[in-house]
């Protein structure tokens, strides 16, 4: 079937990390070959890979087929083209020529229109450093802020400057120097280097909960960044890392104004959007948030990326009920789902395109949310790996994907689909948990083995327990389905405890549950280290019981330092083996596609690799005279 972004399936992750690393390797050479096609360009020496990670990215773009990518934003000349000097340990920082980040499309954009979007969840925590959720934190709070660097909204494969106009990297790959654009907070104060230092230190504040920004701690040591002058900041990192910039460009790595955020408590920032401001394209409209109703943003007329943003503002209608949201879109009371691609609407959007005579266009992103069984591995009986194995083995993942996720997904893997060779679909179908009998049914050997393991663990007659989940959508349906399978196959009596998202997250974080069934947690970054960050970090929500092993720790550290893509892939392959053997606190049961819809007159939206990327809306505009594409062809940028 048609996909808006046909490349995503094959490129997802396997491709993307490679692409990033190759872009790195290609350096600043303007004639860099298309990253995917030139594997010979892989970095040979350690330091080479790390350094130009980001610097080189803009130029890599011109090699790609994106129409708008011709204009390389702020293209630092620095270390990119340099030969590998891995032997030279002296960090030297070379200033770079700063170019205006001009791009062709910027002047095609049209101003006007207050957009109306539909979203499902109420905002939860407004602090983007703190909240661990796309729909309750990033989408409501994100458009007020900038990062230091970002994924290019018109070519999401590459990393470009956001508040940083340019940057360079020391020869040994351990010191980044960022040169800031002339930007202002929305109270008129300038964005300074000390705001950047403050923000990096706030993200890495010891003992503070950092839902989706925790990964910065792997690279950056709290309190080590330095102000060089008002617009220059020096950021040392712990080791030359392939994925420092990949993480720093995440939409969650927002920069905050020290003079506003400094005096606020964590609770002040979480509770009330009125308490904070940013430098971003839109300004939160004070008092506009009404639970179950809506919230509003207005245009930042003083945005440093003028003429962006293009919309006068936008209003987000909070509509829990998907059918009602679809009806709202159908009658033209909203211009799209917010943010365009989210899991919730996948099964409705193709129909909507037909029902609206092509006005609302279908958008898809493949394999971006992970479903799985989350065990509290510290409490009985889930502390026994035999129990964890049995409960996972009886799940018919194909049936789960077909029936509950309605075909919009893939069976579960430990890392991004297609990344580790050990997890190719062919390899998987040979394995326990995935294999099938000749008649196509779930492997009887797996079902028998599950019963045997449970008996061996001391539960020949099953046990009773609690599944914690949320009330709605495929999460609720899959929890019910799983509990039924466990009852039928293993005689478990599971009570289903449903709550809202905020309550679920708070129980998850405080390790106050037995089993959590989640239909989908979104990956953030197009790199498998993202799964290590989110599911295997210490003291993170999805690993509140701190599961790890000595060997797994070793592999986690090794992959972060490994700059050779083949060797790094091998480390992930070893992690897959280890996870299969250990059966940890999370066992994957599927991947889910995401879908959404936009009016065809919304222009310049480019589907990124994950649903957590590119949430500022400062590149999109409304064109009343846009041409409507034929029905059934989805959204066309
Ligand atoms: C997990 O580790 C963190 C420190 O990294 C600690 O504060 C927390 O209590 C630990 N959680 C459990 C359940 O042991
Ligand atoms: C990867 O998978 C293959 C086949 O499934 C297996 O033989 C091998 O041991 C696995 N591990 C590694 C590290 O290659
Ligand atoms: C692979 C895929 O996208 N399958 C389905 C997703 O859901 C819609 C609606 O149920 C189907 O039309 C797709 O074929």
Automatic annotation (TrEMBL):
Q: Which residues cross the membrane?
A: none
Q: Which Pfam family, an example, fits this chain?
A: SBP_bac_5
What name does this protein carry? Heme-binding protein A
Q: Which Gene3D superfamilies match?
A: Dipeptide-binding Protein, Domain 3 (3.10.105.10), Periplasmic binding protein-like II (3.40.190.10)
Start and end residues of each Solute-binding protein family domain? 158-539
Q: Tell me the GO BP annotations in alphabetical order.
A: peptide transport
Where is there biased composition of kind Low complexity? Answer: 32-81
Keyword Thylakoid included in the entry's annotation:
no
Q: Does the keyword Signal apply?
A: yes
PANTHER family tied to this protein: PERIPLASMIC BINDING COMPONENT OF ABC TRANSPORTER
* GO MF, one annotated term: peptide transmembrane transporter activity
Segment forming the signal sequence = 1-31
